[in-house]
């Protein structure tokens, strides 16, 4: 069966989309965006003037990401990979690739100014990463369009200083010897590089403030808050917002840092108070997690994540 026929057959089977994230993306590409995998589309590439204007809008991101792009390319470039940085709309802003492979990547449409949103290219490492705001590995024939099935693309989202989606970091390769374990290892590297870009962007956005790592023991190097001279928290990365239980994005109303941190800058006091509140809610709900979540004003899944972070078991 040809690839386009396989994609369309999967889209027509409604149960497949519920069982597979790849098929769900194929369905979104075909049904929501109206793409047809049997039709070959020319790559949409902006003019130099249009790309220059787009890059100006992402000036800070490009400035702080350059070092990480270079470091990541030094790790993966020798194996024939291209490193790509995009904006939130899926347009490639910057790229690293060896001259030996740059022509091939350009032939596939991986070049500055190209639009790799899911609405344009269907399922792919950049567009699907942005559409679902999660780390993705799109391996060869998991792509929507047949023209892209020679590539493996690994994407990771990058969030801004207000927790908003800024863009994506992607590593693409046309090597046929890329195994599942190699892809997973590379995906971890891409994710860490994306987090380092996010942290650098946050520090640059709050250059005049004190930057504190939240929950350092968790190993999340991108859970950061910015504290001003009045000892108020005025900014937080998306990772820190999740730990603190705040909205994932948007402006923060300044709050006293002493309400959350002890004298050593640790969150233990806050965690103890939060743990007590969660345990009380579950106890009052007679162990019913759904009712406890309602009482706390959060979703059931959110409460389970907090319980895991705080070391709370249902039997406790």
Note poorly predicted spans: none
Helical content stands at: 40-55%
Q: Structural class, from helix and strand content?
A: alpha+beta
The number of helical segments is 13
Largest sheet: 5 strands, antiparallel
Shape: globular
Following the backbone from N to C, one meets helices and strands in this order, namely HHHHHEEHHHEEEHEEEHEHHH
Largest beta sheet: strand ordering = 2-1-5-4-3
Strand content: 15-25%
Separation, N- and C-terminal Cα atoms: 54 Å
What is the average per-residue confidence, as pLDDT, rounded to a whole number?
A: 88
Tell me the number of strands.
Answer: 9
Rg, alpha carbons? 22 Å
Short description:
With 316 residues, the chain is an alpha+beta fold. The chain has helices at residues 3-12, 14-19, 21-32, 48-57, 59-76, 99-107, 118-121, 127-132, 180-205, 238-244, 268-284, 289-296, 300-310, and strands at 81-87, 92-96, 136-139, 152-159, 165-173, 210-213, 224-227, 232-236, 255-256.
Summarize this structure as a short list of keywords or feature phrases:
four-stranded antiparallel β-sheet, five-stranded antiparallel β-sheet, single chain, alpha+beta, 46% helix, 9 strands
Protein model, in words:
By secondary structure, the protein is an alpha+beta fold. Helix content is about 45%, strand content about 15%. It contains 13 helices and nine strands. A five-stranded antiparallel sheet has the order 2-1-5-4-3. A hairpin with a 5-residue loop joins strand 4 (about 150-160) and strand 5 (about 165-175). The longest helix is centred in the middle third of the chain and has 26 residues, at about 180-205. The chain is globular. The model has no long low-confidence stretch (mean pLDDT about 90).
